[in-house]
């Protein structure tokens, strides 16, 4: 279970987050809704360890991880703009987290194939990420984050910038994917329909 | 806001505090020992009582100063005038063969000065040799690339809408140029003028080969005093004088450029020539520019195959001989110089790439003091090669550090000249990496070191290969610093070329052209390959517009 407790973040003397608390149970998918500028992404960055909060704690399965570096948390993050590594192939991107965990090669290869199949990109292994379409890039980013089996997956508006059709299709796929892998997830979005499609529970973050 | 956040609060995923100092240690140490210490030694020589006034009262110095200044001014003005049309055509028009013309115009700038000097020795009639005209002609040829690149990059973004607006308001082509285009281009004009002035003011190789004994620039005079007259103090005073002049010009010019800076919103867009006049203009300028730029080099290559008025391979065949006739020494072993140069280039490339990469990574990872190292490493670039050579010569010639006879001083000097270019090739690549890439690596389980390795180090590995070539090319052609450090029997290619070309007799001259041809081919090849690598086309980052 992921618990963020009383998180406060100040930028330039202004409270972006003021004592925000949130919990995500095992296998639960929670959507975080709210207008832009309300600090949704900031909260994700605090949970992922990319940002140090001014106050508050983050704990995972009862262990306080507030001061842990990101790479020790085993919390995945799907970035809004994917942040694929341009110098690596699709397979190189998907296998990155496994390499960081020193996964033996045969298992790494098998897992990468499994993930590519899961997101519908079998056969894309050696493609350069620069040549992917918007939807394909999002799928690769998702596969990359899921590959190391993170304890919790954070999704920062993972479907923005797609046309309506593709958006809806990917939203359904994503919901199925999270269910089938039993991944706990926290999804940031400003789209109510998307939240309803993907999440078990929705939280509104007001300014 | 994200940028601020990264700096102030990403404390959990940072490299340890000692990382940047550890990376910077070798570059900073090398810079201190082989640049700061020699230049410092040079300064203390100058500060001895009486030395300055003695030197400045020396006869002939006024003539040297006057020649240095006027040839630089004339060369600069002529380069701007001659480079104007190709800069315009290459910046504004798309046409078949544009890349080839661009290469023909810009590659000479990256060639060793000795090759350009040799090309003009081959091209110009005998009664031009040893004249100021010859020096100015070679300078214009050499520096047109600066105008095409610097002025061209400004011209490329002058929006067409502005010129169209002026035309609808009744501006004739002349009015358009005078009242709209030139004012917009002024920063580019000043930038090009400054760079060309600095290059021609400190010109060494070209003047050495073409100016003859009557025409010496400050650089040539410094070398003459130090290596021929043994007047090291005098040479030191002159090189400090030159440093002061260069500093003043750079300061004044950057101030002036800031004042005249204009914000141009336009994005770069090339168009096809539409009207008949436009087509004629583009065709003429492209053809003339290519012919003018290629001719000296073609003539030089062909002259290496001519002896006694006939075509002959003799000069090439005898490159391995050290005697003109039995018993008459040539004074230099042409073929051996090639191998000396290759060996030095390999070592200099290795040194400058290792040091340059460490420095670039330190600059890229530093949160605060990166700029200091960045500026420090650029200083050798702003110091003339002759000054660097002289500094090393006088700093390491007595105890405690007596390295006078050490052969490796030459590749170290070359590395000092080449490292700033390596750093300049790598730092922008590192700066262009979004901080989110390191964050993405971190949330995927990469420790700070592994994230740094996977993102930063991996990203510079491709441009690094290009940087090796760039450094090797610089070392192959380096002439100024080598003049001071060279020892008989270990001449590099440029030194051998200069010796051969200043000797009497047709055969040594043809041999000089043959060596210059080899140097030309080697450098041009490296440049073409390296440019692809360093400023590679179709990089993934560009393609995705990141």
UniProtKB/TrEMBL annotation, chain A:
A Pfam family reported for this protein in Swiss-Prot or TrEMBL: ABC_tran
Entry GO CC: membrane
The keyword Ubl conjugation is assigned to this record: no
Keywords: ATP-binding, Cell membrane, Ion transport, Iron, Iron transport, Membrane, Nucleotide-binding, Transport
ABC transporter domain: residues covered: 2-207
GO molecular function: ABC-type ferric iron transporter activity; ATP binding; ATP hydrolysis activity
Stored Gene3D superfamilies: P-loop containing nucleotide triphosphate hydrolases
SUPFAM superfamilies: P-loop containing nucleoside triphosphate hydrolases (SSF52540)
UniProt cross-references to InterPro entries, sorted A to Z: AAA+_ATPase (IPR003593), ABC_SmlMolc_Importer (IPR050093), ABC_transporter-like_ATP-bd (IPR003439), ABC_transporter-like_CS (IPR017871), ABC_transpr_FbpC (IPR015853), P-loop_NTPase (IPR027417)
Name this polypeptide is given: Unannotated protein
UniProtKB/TrEMBL annotation, chain B:
Ranges where the ABC transmembrane type-1 domain occurs: 65-250, 338-530
InterPro entries xrefs: MetI-like, MetI-like_sf
One GO BP: transmembrane transport
Keywords: Cell inner membrane, Cell membrane, Membrane, Transmembrane, Transmembrane helix, Transport
Cell compartment(s), UniProt: Cell inner membrane
Any Pfam family the entry gives: BPD_transp_1
Membrane topology note: Multi-pass membrane protein
Membrane-spanning ranges: 20-44, 64-89, 101-124, 136-158, 179-201, 234-252, 281-301, 344-363, 375-396, 408-427, 512-530
Gene3D superfamilies: MetI-like (1.10.3720.10)
rRNA processing in keyword set: no
GO cellular component: plasma membrane
Record-linked SUPFAM superfamilies: MetI-like
Protein name: Unannotated protein
Organism: freshwater metagenome
High-level lineage: unclassified sequences, metagenomes, ecological metagenomes
